[in-house]
Design goal:
- The structure is a homodimer.
- With about 160 residues, chain A is an alpha+beta fold.
- In chain A, about 45% of the residues lie in helices and about 20% in strands.
- The first copy, chain A, contains seven helices and five strands, in the order H-E-E-H-H-E-H-E-H-H-E-H.
- Chain A has helices spanning about 5-25, 50-55, 60-75, 90-100, 110-115, 120-130, 150-155; strands at about 35-40, 40-50, 80-85, 105-110, 140.
- In chain A, a hairpin with a 2-residue loop joins strand 1 and strand 2.
- The two termini of chain A are about 35 Å apart.
- Strand 4 of chain A pairs parallel with strand 5 (about 140) of chain B, so a sheet runs across the interface.
Chain lengths: ~160, ~160
């Protein structure tokens, strides 16, 4: 496939992500965000923001699509897949990408577009880089016996599945 | 309640989070991470990492506990609740905290303890601060007609629930 054809394909899937965003919003399921996961020309899953429909603050379009795609292929890894999102992922969804490990992420609208719609992720982007004690949300570490030891139990576990 | 009593209470819940981490790991459900959500002295939900059990890369302990707590109270906001986690949240879970908006987050082990167990979140923390084009994972923005417009449709929507 030529580079131009590849770009056309990316744009078609992004257009679909925008359609899903519009659909989800009009259905009252949540904010105007859509996403899909594609591998080898096959759509593994589509998703849209369902925060309001499910009372789940983590049900962003990308998380919803990633969960559905992983369920569809029976794996917690999206190896060789591409995630298409109608908008630049928020930090939570960005973290989800690194755990799901797709080959690439394409998005259409930017975080500035989202901010204009009242979805201001920039505060979260700023907070993540801060030391826990410096964040606006209270984050406190307290030492508890055994808290670090579970990690050596994990690395010593004979039948563990590394991930 | 005195400050000392409050600290004792936080430590008891954190100890429970560590128990859940150990339980989940030994059950083979996922890595050694546990979390619970408490409000007004009532445990709304407990959770542990279920990435392996559910093939869901987003099923970290905190996300699992937040989703269950929100389902239990029928709200996408954890107002006045406290999240207790056996370990410092990864960037995905940190993002989930900001969307769920609990009053506070307490954790026991640190990201350095987790790294010693092979869970190196620091790469993700580093990547999140970078410009999308500079990340090790391919992140590309492509302009698509209508992508920004869904946000004005959202702000114009008479019956929308802001969140």
């Amino acid at each position: 496939m030529s580079t131009g054809d590849q770009r056309e394909q990316h744009l078609r899937y992004l257009q679909r992500a925008v359609e899903l965003a519009d659909h989800g919003m009009r259905s009252g399921d949540g904010g105007p965000f859509g996403a899909l996961v594609v591998r080898g020309g096959q759509v593994l899953a589509e998703g849209w923001n369902r925060v309001l429909a499910t009372n789940d603050p983590t049900a962003h379009a990308e998380v919803t699509a990633i969960r559905a795609a992983c369920a569809a292929i029976g794996s917690f890894q999206l190896t060789d897949a591409i995630v298409y999102s109608s908008c630049e992922p928020c930090p939570m969804c960005l973290g989800a990408m690194y755990w799901a490990r797709p080959a690439a992420v394409y998005f259409a609208a930017t975080r500035d577009d989202a901010a204009a719609g009242g979805f201001d992720d920039s505060m979260i982007y700023d907070e993540i880089g801060l030391d826990p004690a410096a964040r606006s949300m209270v984050f406190r570490q307290l030492p508890v016996a055994g808290a670090a030891e579970v990690f050596s139990s994990w690395t010593d576990k004979d039948d563990r599945t590394p991930y």
